[in-house]
Design brief:
- There is one protein chain.
- The protein is α/β, with parallel strands linked by helices.
- It folds into two domains: 138 residues, Rossmann fold, CATH 3.40.50; 162 residues, Dihydrodipicolinate Reductase, domain 2 (2-Layer Sandwich), CATH 3.30.360.10.
- It has nine helices and 14 strands.
- Helix 4 runs parallel beside helix 5, helix 5 runs antiparallel to helix 9 and helix 7 packs across helix 9.
- The longest helix has 16 residues.
- The radius of gyration is 22 Å and the shape is globular.
- The termini are far apart.
- The model has no long low-confidence stretch (mean pLDDT 94).
- One of its GO terms (molecular function) is nucleotide binding.
- InterPro entries: Gfo/Idh/MocA-like_OxRdtase_N, Gfo/Idh/MocA_Oxidoreductases, GFO_IDH_MocA-like_dom, NAD(P)-bd_dom_sf.
Length: 319
Amino acid sequence: MLKAGVLGAGHLGKIHLRLLNQSNKYELVGFYDPIKENAKKVAEEFGYKSFDTIQELIEAVDVVDIVTPTLSHFDCAKEAIEKGKHIFIEKPITKTIEEAETLIELTKKHNVKGQVGHVERFNPAFTAVKDSIHNPMFIETHRLAEFNPRGTDVPVVLDLMIHDIDIILSVVKSKVVSVHASGVSVISDTPDIANARIKFENGCVANLTASRISLKNMRKSRFFQKDAYIAVDFFEKATEVVKMKDAPKIPGDFDMILQNAEGIKKQIYFENPTIEGNNAILDELETFADAINNNTTPIVTLEQGTEALKVAHMIINDF
């Protein structure tokens, strides 16, 4: 079992601690949190070992799980990598592109692995349909959240929209050629609501909306491709797959048939992929353990996390 330690014992950090503790692929060694009162409270309430310094925790583990505010990601990761430790790092990978690229070089130099916590890649609704998404030409995403002070140290693009940026980059195999965006600050000092239109070299267009000042939560994406429409509800963990094929010469009584202006007939049919229940955070942590143990490529690499960050900054810079 890999020895793991967590940096940061806030809301998400406590979730990571609980899941690492129950995983059969990790031995949870403990955690470090710079806020002494919080560290003491978490240690007393859950029985996890609290380390006095980051250095002591890093020395005691094989894998460092970084669940700190984005601004400290780089310093924490750099220190762990230079000690020869594998790193799991929450999204966004770092604050700046330069920091992210430095981490990539450091992992190569010290021969360690890194994975970024883009958890929606492990959402069961997405995993159920991702192999059906082929060359989408139009994508629309809405990620709306009720206001929460956590995360407001960064723009909504880095807080929420980056999830959808990563998903889109994972299915569109083409370069980004242009970005047009707008963002508005309502409560925070940084934009709380944003819209972006991303155009790819192959002609695909993605329209993304993110808000952290909505009255309800919504996390939906729709993918349009030739002969198919695929919708993913990341929040409800549900999918809708509508496909078209050449209509039979003699349609059945209940077949849905469309005919275009040229007289070509298509039959509409629905697929209902099986959605397996899972804990996406546990899955991302355990697949990282598999990548380390089997010396394979993590599902969400530091390079992929960096590409998502680059697009996020293109959006922010266009405000």
